[in-house]
Design brief:
seven-stranded parallel sheet; alpha/beta; 9 helices; Rossmann fold; binds NADP nicotinamide-adenine-dinucleotide phosphate
Length: 256
Amino acid sequence: MGRFDGRVAVVTGAARGIGLAIATRLADEGASVAVLDLDEAQAGAAAEQLPAEAGRPHLGIGCDVSDTGSARAAVERVVGELGALHILVNNAGVTRDNLLFKMTDDDWDTVIAVHLRGAFAMTRAAQQHFVQQKYGKVVCLSSVSALGNRGQANYAAAKMGIQGFVRTLGIELGPFGVTANAIAPGFIATDMTDATAARVGMPVEEFRQAAADRNPVRRVGYPEDIAAAAAFLCSEEASYITGQTLYVDGGAKLVS
Ligand code: NAP
């Protein structure tokens, strides 16, 4: 028996990276999972590779979470095709790093739109189902960068915004059986951090090693580290935890 038997989960930005690891973990523990990502074909390919068994379908849906109509349509399709919605993981993300004086309006707007408006649009679309059934779990991806990070004024603002967002969801939705929490990862080895290595002109392995050397536990994080935390926060064991941000960062926050 899995912790998520009979549950239906949506994970945004789940065609790769942390989102794919979370989708895999939830599916591994019994959930039917809808993989949402910008590209429907990639979302479908990811859904096909999730742990599965007869009678428990997964779904891949093309969705731009920053677009209200797209977010709403995706949620309705999940409920229509998978029969319900119990878990929402707002994971989709982008970076447009630049020092403040070089940051464009577009850099700012894009990051705020995907992380903050995206989490808002998806959660607003999902909450009506959660409230009706008096059950729901929301997990949003924040970041250790919420505490401030050079070159990431847009991303830090969005990721700290996520922390305020889940605190407010905790207050508003708690009476309806819904919990909402955030996970703030430190350095996780994914395409996103590989792209940062490329931007600063460092080979990926050297960049990861430098991050590991700075970290109290002397390693980088992996998508599975975040998936384990997400599964806990979506489980019944975490039913008395809401509005919180869990730093999953090997202690990076302690030394930043
Ligand atoms: P990633 O490898 O870049 O994957 C992000 C995924 O989100 C991609 O599949 C991307 O699709 C998708 N996406 C982007 N914009 C979208 C939109 N508007 N609608 C739907 N999907 C969209 O990133 P990651 O490293 O796994 O990060 C996942 C989350 O963790 C993000 O919220 C990130 O900010 C957060 N985080 C990551 C780290 C880290 O070290 N990696 C640390 C702290 C927090 P495309 O491929 O089509 O662009």
